[in-house]
Design a protein that fits this description.
The chain is built from 10 helices and 12 strands. By secondary structure, the protein is of the alpha/beta class. It has a single domain, classed as TIM Barrel. An 8-stranded parallel beta barrel has the order 1-4-5-6-7-10-11-12, surrounded by 8 helices. It is globular.
Length: 270
């Protein structure tokens, strides 16, 4: 049986780590170097880094950040945010990413999923599906950081991305994101029950029990969060310990000896 994974999600805007609530970015809470250094030392399985910057200047900074992070990240690194073609996927992989997360462009150009999974392998391609309830209170896939409706029903879109070759799905409830109310377990279960590829649940974690619910109730293959990891001391260490003591099939650690994170060296990246 595959291990369940715990994955922090680092959201960057203009090079800074930001707190996100319902896809609105409020407080700047740090930098990616510090976050990755601490996550490396605190029992994490993978790391996701998503860029929400929109300008070309900030995009170039994001590439510099990924080149720096990849040198000090010792777990699989997934990179995403406004990726639109094979050439940029190739560049991020060359810079050290292990997986690529695509979202808006995957909806606009379905062939990007097929072509990228065939070229790089399905294990490399993660399709991010952002969902919220529309005016009719029905689940709908949204793109462009939750701004644009697509008319797509989440289950059918999840089935299609699997058929097109995606190796994994990052499922985000926009309504729950940043609220600390827990995952949208109904949505999560609908998706996991209808696809055969791994599903990462994201959006809404406010306490460790929410991770357990995501796995036990929502059948997620991996659970992810952002804000809680930035504000809770020794957070990923304690989260993994909680999952282990809840009898979940997670990668074991030496839980009773807290590791000391390495001090970041900012000149490696800027």
């Amino acid at each position: 049986m595959l291990k369940k994974r715990l994955i922090p999600n680092i959201i960057l805007n203009e090079g800074n780590v930001v707190q996100s609530v319902n896809f609105k970015h409020t407080n700047v809470i740090g930098n990616a170097i510090t976050a990755v250094d601490f996550f490396n030392s605190w029992a994490i399985d993978e790391i996701i880094v998503l860029d929400v910057s929109r300008t070309r200047k900030e995009r170039e900074k994001f590439h510099r950040i990924i080149r720096g992070l990849s040198k000090r990240c010792f777990v699989p690194l997934t990179v995403g945010g406004w990726i639109s073609d094979i050439d940029e996927i190739k560049l991020f992989l060359k810079e050290g990413a292990d997986k690529i997360c695509i979202n808006t462009e995957a909806v606009k150009n379905n062939l990007l999923i097929k072509e990228s999974s065939e070229f790089f392998g399905s294990q490399c391609i993660v399709v991010s599906i952002d969902v919220k309830k529309n005016v009719n209170q029905e689940y709908e896939v949204f793109i462009n950081r939750g701004k644009d409706e697509t008319g797509l029903e989440p289950i059918e879109w999840a089935k299609k991305v699997e058929k097109l070759g995606a190796g994994e799905i990052l499922l985000t409830s926009i309504d729950k994101e940043g609220t600390k109310q827990g995952y949208d377990l109904k949505l999560l279960k609908e998706i996991t029950n209808n696809v055969g590829i791994p599903v990462i649940s994201f959006g809404g974690v406010g306490k460790w029990e929410h991770f357990v619910d995501g796995i036990n109730v929502g059948n997620a293959d991996a659970v992810s969060a952002a804000n809680i990891f930035h504000y809770t001391e020794h957070s990923t260490f304690n989260a993994k310990k909680f999952l282990f003591e809840s009898k979940l099939n997670v990668r074991m650690q030496e839980f009773y000896k807290l590791p000391t994170p390495r001090k970041p060296k900012y000149d490696e990246i800027f």
